[in-house]
Amino acid sequence: MTVTEESFDVVVIGGGPVGENAADRASRTGLSVALVESELVGGECSYWACMPSKVLLRAGAVRALARDTPGLTDPGAPDAAAVFARRDEITSHWDDSGQVSWVEGAGLTLVRGHGRLAGERLVEVTAPKDGPAAGFGAAAEGDDAPVTRLLRARHAVIVATGSVPVLPDVPGLAEAAPWSSREATSADAVPESLVVVGGGVVGVEMANAYADLGSQVTLLARGGLLSSAEPFAGEMVAEALRAAGVDVRLGVEPSAVERAGGTVTVTLSDGGTVTAAEILVATGRVPRTADLDVAAVGLDESALGRGGALVVDESLQVTGVPGGWLYACGDVTGRAPTTHQGKYQARVVGDVVAARYGTQEGDRSPTAGDPVPGVGAEPARWSRYAATADQDARVQVVFTQPQVAWVGPTEREARAAGLPVEAVSYDLSWVAGASVESPGYAGRAQVLVDTQRRVLVGATFVGPDAGEMLHAATIAVVGQVPLDRLWHAVPAYPTVSEVWLRFLESYGL
């Protein structure tokens, strides 16, 4: 075995968008940073999740818009080959050289291989001799053993390893070689039929995408769809999927799966069966800590959160590790498993590390009014050194037809937390801007008003391009804008955003 060792101020494990952002921010006060990645730099979002999935959904969304617009002719089913070709462009044909150039241009050191914790401020990175091991150096001649590189962090290690999909313990399921989200977003052909297991974001988006592309889709969900959103959102998506030809079955789950040749047979919990050419399992993900060796830094199973998550404080410092040198951000924390929320955490933790350990003159260290959160100190709420939005303003967009977008808690979550809220709903089709867009426009929006403080704490939008309406609500929630002041934010006419005026009028302003 060939072993090399070198030191950096900071080591980041995980080179997805979250790790990239954390590494970049941490380096801005003169710290040297190593970025460790075992697969493609750019991570899940760039190659197998956010970006390719939205391309697969786009053609169907445009077709629906054309169908609903008087004067336009239905262009027909999307050309799957052209859609896949565009997907390949967006993923750079699964070539990360562009991302690598960005990393190097930012002054970061890329280390290819699998990183794991090996002791205090120590990361062990292993890569096969013939694998993508840039920066490792050559192994000894004739040595087929893995090359190992020890990275010693002078100040901090940041874990951004993301999450991995969960495969339910269903007889025959593993042997049936099911698709995960990776296979669904990187497929080069549309299966004649597809069974989707799971009613969450991945499940409904991929059911929508493959139905648009011509597959006969059956969607199985143990409960309702989009259970983390307001109930009306999942109900509207289920109705739209059924209208698009998807066989949506709620309250059922697989009890057995068998693949015979080109056919997968799924036996259901209600005694029925369904067959298809492929099966996609989208029943959730768990933080990727199983191969991180957290025991090496004194963390046992009892110190981890749900699904093995690294438990962090508001400055994203991992709790239970002496010396306060270990940090984490993104899905691995289990706090808010979306790319945008993970990148937000990355900005926070990168700034925390840069402020705590950076020495470069003219740095962006906080002022006296925004104190440096020293090791063990509590950062001020809503300072840039605290991931406050994870608790109060998480955002999510689901790119189905219709889109679903929300910020903050649902009404059920708010009431469970003891918040005095009133829900104000409005049918978006009643807004002038919606009627101009399409005679068949369908959508609904709801805000949650804290009746004591008279500010918004949450909002949900369902409708065409609902995701583009979300940020105004996010600003209102994060800014805790009083309703009396929000009344002076005049929406342009005729736009769908006029719903903001209707919310306030409905509330009595």
From TrEMBL:
<dbReference type="GO" id="GO:0050660">
    <property type="term" value="F:flavin adenine dinucleotide binding"/>
</dbReference>
<dbReference type="InterPro" id="IPR050151">
    <property type="entry name" value="Class-I_Pyr_Nuc-Dis_Oxidored"/>
</dbReference>
<feature type="domain" description="Pyridine nucleotide-disulphide oxidoreductase dimerisation">
    <location>
        <begin position="396"/>
        <end position="500"/>
    </location>
</feature>
<feature type="binding site">
    <location>
        <position position="331"/>
    </location>
    <ligand>
        <name>FAD</name>
    </ligand>
</feature>
<comment type="similarity">
    <text>Belongs to the class-I pyridine nucleotide-disulfide oxidoreductase family.</text>
</comment>
<keyword id="KW-0274">FAD</keyword>
<feature type="binding site">
    <location>
        <position position="284"/>
    </location>
    <ligand>
        <name>NAD(+)</name>
    </ligand>
</feature>
<dbReference type="InterPro" id="IPR016156">
    <property type="entry name" value="FAD/NAD-linked_Rdtase_dimer_sf"/>
</dbReference>
<dbReference type="GO" id="GO:0004148">
    <property type="term" value="F:dihydrolipoyl dehydrogenase (NADH) activity"/>
</dbReference>
<keyword id="KW-0285">Flavoprotein</keyword>
<feature type="binding site">
    <location>
        <begin position="198"/>
        <end position="205"/>
    </location>
    <ligand>
        <name>NAD(+)</name>
    </ligand>
</feature>
<dbReference type="Pfam" id="PF07992">
    <property type="entry name" value="Pyr_redox_2"/>
</dbReference>
<feature type="binding site">
    <location>
        <position position="54"/>
    </location>
    <ligand>
        <name>FAD</name>
    </ligand>
</feature>
<dbReference type="InterPro" id="IPR036188">
    <property type="entry name" value="FAD/NAD-bd_sf"/>
</dbReference>
<keyword id="KW-0520">NAD</keyword>
<dbReference type="InterPro" id="IPR023753">
    <property type="entry name" value="FAD/NAD-binding_dom"/>
</dbReference>
<dbReference type="Pfam" id="PF02852">
    <property type="entry name" value="Pyr_redox_dim"/>
</dbReference>
<dbReference type="GO" id="GO:0006103">
    <property type="term" value="P:2-oxoglutarate metabolic process"/>
</dbReference>
<feature type="domain" description="FAD/NAD(P)-binding">
    <location>
        <begin position="8"/>
        <end position="342"/>
    </location>
</feature>
<keyword id="KW-0547">Nucleotide-binding</keyword>
<dbReference type="InterPro" id="IPR004099">
    <property type="entry name" value="Pyr_nucl-diS_OxRdtase_dimer"/>
</dbReference>
<dbReference type="InterPro" id="IPR001100">
    <property type="entry name" value="Pyr_nuc-diS_OxRdtase"/>
</dbReference>
<feature type="disulfide bond" description="Redox-active">
    <location>
        <begin position="45"/>
        <end position="50"/>
    </location>
</feature>
<protein>
    <submittedName>
        <fullName>Oxidoreductase</fullName>
    </submittedName>
</protein>
<feature type="binding site">
    <location>
        <begin position="161"/>
        <end position="163"/>
    </location>
    <ligand>
        <name>FAD</name>
    </ligand>
</feature>
<feature type="binding site">
    <location>
        <position position="115"/>
    </location>
    <ligand>
        <name>FAD</name>
    </ligand>
</feature>
